[in-house]
Amino acid sequence: MTHMESYELLFRGASVGLLLFLAIRFAMMGLRGAVDRAGFLCCVVAAFHALGAHEAPSLGPQWLDATFYYLGNFFGFAFWLLALALFSDRARLCVLTVIPFAVIAVTGFFPELYFICQIVTVGLMLHIMVLALQDFDGDLVQFRRSFRVVLATLVPIFVITSIAGEVLVDGYAPAFQIIEWVKYFGSSLLFSLWLTRMERGLLSTPDAETAPRPRDVPVADRLDLDKLNDAVASGACFEPGLTIGALAHQLDMPEHRLRRLINRGLGYRNFAAFVNDHRIEEAKRRLADPGQAREQIIAHAFALGYNSLAPFNRAFRERTGQSPTAWRTAQLDQGHVPAE
């Protein structure tokens, strides 16, 4: 065994060990939330990817290497699922989610179609970058905001350097493979360090029907929290295009402090969810009021700060399971009397 092969085996074994440790760590968390389930899957598939790399020395029978290689093709897909679960609090699996899985599953059996699998994987990595940067300003969890930046930076670097190595130089050259394994080990190590610092609350995906869970805030923050609640009660959330920066300006409060108040004091992880919850609660009150029964739905949407009917309908359905029209009809048929 040459020195290059020894180094490669060292980094490869260390990467697999770290990934299996992370998978066990996710499993010990109970696999109850979307993030811990996706994280467990991602770590296991990444380990298969490391074990089944074509350029790596054989680990046993040919059928075993082929199995590891085939399962490892799903690493990009598993990582994409983890990003969806981490950055989209209300993400749900749908038909579109299955499409990349099906493409990878089919093309994985045909070596001549492997380039299709690579194209799909690159597309998923680009979408991860979009997810990481999307709604960055509205994310109220500071640690998750930091991870968005790291992810949006590392993903393009890893993808571009890997593709460039395969296209521009001999992808199987020993020096290139050492660099790839160092990158693989480094990313596994960084992810394991991130996981040890991550708050447990990040590993649960809140259900649309579950109310936010506020935590105790220091005495020094209670006056600011009261100030925030007063502003919300006076209709601050109904301003069209409201951003957390604009609300912080209204309250004459540093933006980072407002983020912490909404996150820790009110239990929200996303500013859009905070705003929509208050808007929809007011919408429910208005729609249940017989005195406003003739008011058009779109008029309520505009009055509550929405720029069009579609986002209002979507937010309303997420929280009630019904369209605004159906909900109003049901409430008025029951003779509902709105609270003062």
Automatic annotation (TrEMBL):
<keyword id="KW-0812">Transmembrane</keyword>
<keyword id="KW-0472">Membrane</keyword>
<keyword id="KW-0238">DNA-binding</keyword>
<dbReference type="InterPro" id="IPR009057">
    <property type="entry name" value="Homeodomain-like_sf"/>
</dbReference>
<feature type="transmembrane region" description="Helical">
    <location>
        <begin position="68"/>
        <end position="86"/>
    </location>
</feature>
<feature type="transmembrane region" description="Helical">
    <location>
        <begin position="175"/>
        <end position="195"/>
    </location>
</feature>
<feature type="transmembrane region" description="Helical">
    <location>
        <begin position="6"/>
        <end position="26"/>
    </location>
</feature>
<dbReference type="InterPro" id="IPR018060">
    <property type="entry name" value="HTH_AraC"/>
</dbReference>
<keyword id="KW-0804">Transcription</keyword>
<dbReference type="GO" id="GO:0043565">
    <property type="term" value="F:sequence-specific DNA binding"/>
</dbReference>
<feature type="domain" description="HTH araC/xylS-type">
    <location>
        <begin position="226"/>
        <end position="330"/>
    </location>
</feature>
<feature type="transmembrane region" description="Helical">
    <location>
        <begin position="116"/>
        <end position="134"/>
    </location>
</feature>
<protein>
    <recommendedName>
        <fullName>HTH araC/xylS-type domain-containing protein</fullName>
    </recommendedName>
</protein>
<feature type="transmembrane region" description="Helical">
    <location>
        <begin position="93"/>
        <end position="110"/>
    </location>
</feature>
<dbReference type="GO" id="GO:0003700">
    <property type="term" value="F:DNA-binding transcription factor activity"/>
</dbReference>
<keyword id="KW-1133">Transmembrane helix</keyword>
<dbReference type="Pfam" id="PF12833">
    <property type="entry name" value="HTH_18"/>
</dbReference>
<keyword id="KW-0805">Transcription regulation</keyword>
<feature type="transmembrane region" description="Helical">
    <location>
        <begin position="146"/>
        <end position="169"/>
    </location>
</feature>
